[in-house]
Amino acid sequence: MTKREVGDAIEAAMQERKLTFADLAERLGRPRVWVAAAVLGQHPFTPHEAKQLVAMLDLAPEAAAVLEQIPTRGALDGPVPVDPTIYRLYEVILVYGPALKALIHEEFGDGIMSAINFRADVERVPDPAGDRVRITLDGKFLPYQWG
Amino acid sequence: MTKREVGDAIEAAMQERKLTFADLAERLGRPRVWVAAAVLGQHPFTPHEAKQLVAMLDLAPEAAAVLEQIPTRGALDGPVPVDPTIYRLYEVILVYGPALKALIHEEFGDGIMSAINFRADVERVPDPAGDRVRITLDGKFLPYQWG
Amino acid sequence: MTKREVGDAIEAAMQERKLTFADLAERLGRPRVWVAAAVLGQHPFTPHEAKQLVAMLDLAPEAAAVLEQIPTRGALDGPVPVDPTIYRLYEVILVYGPALKALIHEEFGDGIMSAINFRADVERVPDPAGDRVRITLDGKFLPYQWG
Amino acid sequence: MTKREVGDAIEAAMQERKLTFADLAERLGRPRVWVAAAVLGQHPFTPHEAKQLVAMLDLAPEAAAVLEQIPTRGALDGPVPVDPTIYRLYEVILVYGPALKALIHEEFGDGIMSAINFRADVERVPDPAGDRVRITLDGKFLPYQWG
Amino acid sequence: MTKREVGDAIEAAMQERKLTFADLAERLGRPRVWVAAAVLGQHPFTPHEAKQLVAMLDLAPEAAAVLEQIPTRGALDGPVPVDPTIYRLYEVILVYGPALKALIHEEFGDGIMSAINFRADVERVPDPAGDRVRITLDGKFLPYQWG
Amino acid sequence: MTKREVGDAIEAAMQERKLTFADLAERLGRPRVWVAAAVLGQHPFTPHEAKQLVAMLDLAPEAAAVLEQIPTRGALDGPVPVDPTIYRLYEVILVYGPALKALIHEEFGDGIMSAINFRADVERVPDPAGDRVRITLDGKFLPYQWG
Amino acid sequence: MTKREVGDAIEAAMQERKLTFADLAERLGRPRVWVAAAVLGQHPFTPHEAKQLVAMLDLAPEAAAVLEQIPTRGALDGPVPVDPTIYRLYEVILVYGPALKALIHEEFGDGIMSAINFRADVERVPDPAGDRVRITLDGKFLPYQWG
Amino acid sequence: MTKREVGDAIEAAMQERKLTFADLAERLGRPRVWVAAAVLGQHPFTPHEAKQLVAMLDLAPEAAAVLEQIPTRGALDGPVPVDPTIYRLYEVILVYGPALKALIHEEFGDGIMSAINFRADVERVPDPAGDRVRITLDGKFLPYQWG
Amino acid sequence: MTKREVGDAIEAAMQERKLTFADLAERLGRPRVWVAAAVLGQHPFTPHEAKQLVAMLDLAPEAAAVLEQIPTRGALDGPVPVDPTIYRLYEVILVYGPALKALIHEEFGDGIMSAINFRADVERVPDPAGDRVRITLDGKFLPYQWG
Amino acid sequence: MTKREVGDAIEAAMQERKLTFADLAERLGRPRVWVAAAVLGQHPFTPHEAKQLVAMLDLAPEAAAVLEQIPTRGALDGPVPVDPTIYRLYEVILVYGPALKALIHEEFGDGIMSAINFRADVERVPDPAGDRVRITLDGKFLPYQWG
Fold it and tell me: I want to staple G97 with a disulfide (CB 3.0 to 4.6 A). Which of D18, D67, D133, G93 is the partner?
């Protein structure tokens, strides 16, 4: 069984049981983006969480071990995403990437926003002109440091 | 004169005058990310702003017209960014893109976060374990709508 | 079952029953291009429509859930289409893309034609010199707007 | 002088004289999309039109010969457009390309919409929910025909 | 069953029965290149021809419907062919493509040789210094015509 | 001076003197396709021809040496041609390449059509339904031969 | 059965019987490089050789027909080989390709070394400083010849 | 001055003085392939050789330092060579690469032919059926060795 | 059975038996990085080691032969690694590659660090500011040597 | 002035003055790899260091500001390095990347070796069988940590 097969099984079970990622996140006591990413194969679950998921969604018993594995990450099929919802995030990098880099350097000096010591969130922001999607990317600043 | 040449001239003038994008943003009454993106060639300035910049930074007079042009956008040299600060944003899409898509659909239904009716911000969040970079991406939700 | 497998099953059933996309569109009360795109995996059907299709074309019952899923969009195998009928649309972008951009900006200012709040149509236009294909792309204008 | 240099000179002269592509199109008696594409290097002007443009915009005399040359066409820098306004047209092919192909075949049989015997137009369609961009692609149907 | 599977079945049956594409072409009353291309999945057969092939080569009955489908064309695995026999045709474009373009424009004006209203042939031309392969590409000239 | 610069100078001189490649071919006693390819940098001229061209078109004297050099061949900017006139030749390979290979093998056995011991021609074939472009590719058959 | 499947079966049988390509080459009376290439799917065997191989290695009877087919050649997965043993050959082209071209032209004039009328060999050359691999590439010189 | 500029200057001086790479090789006491590769920017000359070349070919004095630099190697413009003379070498890898690898392993065990401790030669081999190009690649065998 | 399938079986058996690569390395008397690379398909095991592994992990008997085969090396799916742990190594080349090259040349002269006569190690270095990963790459210097 | 131009000027001045990167490193009190990387445009110098370099190497005064800029990093021309000295590092990732990942995870758990809080060194290790290049990559371990 691969991470992808287990992820597909989880999504099918969620659809059948009318469970959302928010529901899963609540039951596991984990943030929603983390849980969705983990189901989609990008994070390992703890042994305890893996067992909970197998029980809760009636997965095959051998799925637990797969859910615990540290994954080979990377969830897109090519270098440029083709799905429009994901492409818009890529377009943000194309248009605003260098501006964000310039402002990080202006504010913090030479370094990066970590994508490892990192969390993200998605929120719905009500707006009379149409509700808005607010995505927060929040990572530790890592200065270039020779050691 | 190209957008890139004018942008380079602005950055040189900023360095000489010890001006930051935050300073420029304040003088123009515009958000910082927008101003940095516009200087880097991704947004047109209004004729008034273009004149302000030419005066403030002592640019060549013909720079004003260039600053007003609607640009051909796209600020990277290839499909995958190589600069580490920008690459981390790309890695976020590789690892979390499908999770963000899943949660947008769970929350809003089928559609996208607009990258056009869109704003972004970068903040420094103090943290005893090391300050954090918080990037907010905030775009209008656009449902798939046949017309 | 994947979107592609269900789509193949629908097309096989259509061929057997001599049904066209126009027929399906009429029975579902939906535009033709939308229906063809949805069958080819690019749009979710409503639960009601999914049931109609399963009944009308005698599909496997589990196809309904697949038809309702929000898809990961993108229907080509590579960045440049190789099929001649689809390539001609790509050639139109290669040759006329920047001209269309210039005229959108001339007419509306800085912004885009939405591909989300969007509809398309294909018509046959009789012409004594040979009938013509007329494709209409019709999307909401979205001005660049910082929020 | 290259096509691109002459095109840049024309656009600079247009900006200075506050002329639009619509103005040029009217003076030359040619459709707007054709004129914009030709200025951007994708179509040759007739000798008469080339002279008109040189006179009207005070171009260098040797520009006329360049404007008359049959171009090596193709106006993008890479296989996938990065400018958001042009990318949306590409996204339409990614999402709707196979559906448009299916409907062309359903309506006309095996063949293509010509991109050579072809015209395009861009219109503004007023809409209370926000004006719309309507792009019409109109090409002769060419059936596969062995000779 | 896919076009490729049916094509493989036809080639296996041809090998077993010692039939060539020339034999098939004669029995179907079609040119050889067309028949070879159609067997390799690039052209639809008429219903009558599909039935003939199924009978003649003892194919599975459901192959007939597959043979009649309008294909998604494109018979190579990547943008640059690797097989030496096919690569030589590509090399001809690399070396002579712009020359052929220049001469088409010199002879006909601005336009293309259609690849749709098109036929091709392969002949053996005896030559004492070694027989020659003569490939004829013959397509209707299509002038750029705005409509 | 590069091959490209000399080629551009030749084309400019031809345009000024209203000379075609056919005229050049006649004066040099060489076939048209060969001459066009050589002007476009794909074949070396003999010293005698190089001198003739310099004299006939009043080129810079140092052009002669450049025209005599054996070129680094390859006249396109990327693996897939974007100019529509040249792309149609590429499309012919995509659609008919494997069929041409199959027929070469059927007729000659295992081997290739040489692109080195090779000639090509372009003709205009009058046709009441629209004149046709006939391109002949004629190369020596080279059987795979181990030595 | 594909060429690859038959090749895998041959290699498995060779491993089991402790046979080398040199052994096969001797039994078939063919050069080693040719035999290895043919087993790896790059050359057709004669019907007699195919039968010999089937008998000698106890292959499935239908393997014979596969071994006789003229292959679609090309034995790498991408344009740049990743296996270090094969990459070194590619590196030789990157570093010495233009030098080899210059010397072929210096010695023979304009033309190529055929890769069709071609043979190759690999030898072990004893050397006190470490034995050497000597690869000989030996192809007929083909001058550019218009026919 | 870059390696390429110095190389171009050397080739121009050779053409003017009717010197071949073989002549240069003889005067420098170096093998021909090495000298051609070094002129084309792939090897550093010794200070003594650099001075000899500057004197012999009347190069600019600052060329000597450039000729002595250790180069950033790699002499092609893209991953797949387009020049036919160089492409044939690449085709040899596509067709025979895995066979050569298999025979190196059969003869020597696991390892590679070095492209660093390496020499190459090009010879003309007279043959009544047409002279042959024989390229010898001769590199030290390096076994995989963990240290 | 392929190298990948056997590698997956080994990893599954390791997970079940709570064995690490360090454990395997100790039992086989081989360095850890070598063993991990070999399990992941990049090095052949000796017949003795292959038998040990089959016995120790209760693998299918035919796995032994697969483990002994010299592999076609290369363990990534594309030219740029997407997994963040592996990407960081690639980023090191992007940022420090030319610097490492310059220092190798400064220290040793023209040549390379062998990746064949090569060993690597990974260590944990305790550090109060957070433990560090130290990777040592250690290869024989190979000077460019014409032979 | 660009980073590359200043870097070229520094290398020219070093060559003229017979200075090595080791010399520069000593004078600046910085590690050699860092200094080489910074000269090659990958790290900003402090204002003090920039002044030292300008004085020491007699650079143009405006070089100082360029040396202080935070760079857009990435020092290769394409995704796969072609220079053999740098390619060997890339080959190490192709062959050992997944093994290094597996051992980092075995030793530290899920996370990465930072390429930002990172230092590298190159040493010459004397060895009777030929001196060795030892490259040490030493980065802080960063565990995946949601925040």
Answer: G93
- Which residues in chain D are closer than 8 Å to F90, comparing Cβ atoms? none
Touching chains, G (3+ CB pairs < 8 A): E, F, H, I, J
pTM over 0.90: yes
Question: How far apart are the C-alpha atoms of E68 and E47, rounded to whole Å?
Answer: 6
Per residue in H20-39, pLDDT tens?
999 999 999 999 999 999 99
Q: What is the per-residue burial (b if ≥16 Cβ within 10 Å, else e) of G109-124? A: ebbbbbbbbbbbbbee
Locate C87 and state its tokens: 């390539």
End-to-end Cα distance, chain F:
41
**ipTM of this model?**
0.96
Q: Does B95 sit within 8 Å of I91, measured CB to CB?
A: no
Q: List the domain boundaries for chain C.
A: 3-68, 84-143
Tokens of D118: 């072809």
Q: Which residues of D, range 70-129, sit inside 8 Å of C by Cβ?
A: 73-76, 79-81, 83-86, 88-108, 111-115, 118, 120, 122, 124-125, 127, 129
Superfamily of domain E84-143: Cyanate lyase, C-terminal domain (3.30.1160.10)
On the question of a common fold for F3-68 and F84-143, the answer reads: no
Residues 6+ apart with CB under 8 A from C56: C24, C27
Cα(J62)–Cα(J45) distance, rounded to whole angstroms?
14
Distance from CA of A7 to the nearest CA of I (A): 18
Characterise E21 by phi-psi region: left (phi > 0), alpha (psi -120 to 50), beta (else): alpha
Phi/psi for E76 (5° steps) reads: -115, 160
Q: Which of E4, E11, E43, E88 to mutate to test the interface with F (most CBs of F within 10 A)?
A: E88
- Domain spanning C3-68: which superfamily? lambda repressor-like DNA-binding domains (1.10.260.40)
F10-37 pLDDT, tens digit each = 999 999 999 999 999 999 999 999 999 9
If you ran DSSP here, which 8-state letter would residue G145 be given? B
Taking chain F (147 residues) in consecutive chunks of 10 residues, what is each chunk's mean pLDDT? 95 95 97 97 97 98 96 91 97 97 97 97 96 98 92
Report residue B71 as tokens. Answer: 């640009």
Q: Is G26 on the interface with J (CB under 8 A)?
A: no
Q: Quote the minimal CA–CA distance from F101 to chain E in Å.
A: 6
Rounded to 5°, the CA angle H130-H132-H134 comes to 175
- The CA–CA distances, whole Å, from C65 to A22, A60, A84, C3 equal 20, 21, 22, 10
Among all residues of B, which ones are annotated catalytic? 88, 91, 114
Segment I81-135, tens digit of pLDDT: 999 999 999 999 999 999 999 999 999 999 999 999 999 999 999 999 999 999 9
Give the torsion sign (CA, D91, D92, D95, D98).
negative
Quote the tokens at residue J89: 């590092």
**Which chain J residues are closer than 8 Å to I101 by Cβ?**
83, 85-86
Chains G and A touch (3+ CB pairs under 8 A): no
**Any idea what DSSP says for residue E73?**
-
Report d(CA F15, CA D71) in Å as an integer.
14
What percentage of residues in chain I have a pLDDT greater than 90? 96
The answer to whether the Cβ–Cβ distance between I91 and B87 falls below 8 Å is: yes
* Residue I147 reports pLDDT greater than 90: no
List strands edge to edge, sheet with G132-143: G111-125, G132-143, H132-143, H111-125
CA–CA separation, C49 and C31 (whole Å): 13
I115, with CB counted inside 10 A (0-12, 13-18, 19+), is buried
Question: What residues of chain D score a pLDDT lower than 50?
Answer: none
A83 vs C65: CB contact, 8 Å cut-off? Answer: no
Judged by CB atoms closer than 8 Å, whether chains meet at D147 and E110 is answered as no
Q: Could you identify the residue written with the tokens 């999945």?
A: E41
d(CA C28, CA C30) in angstroms, rounded, equals: 5
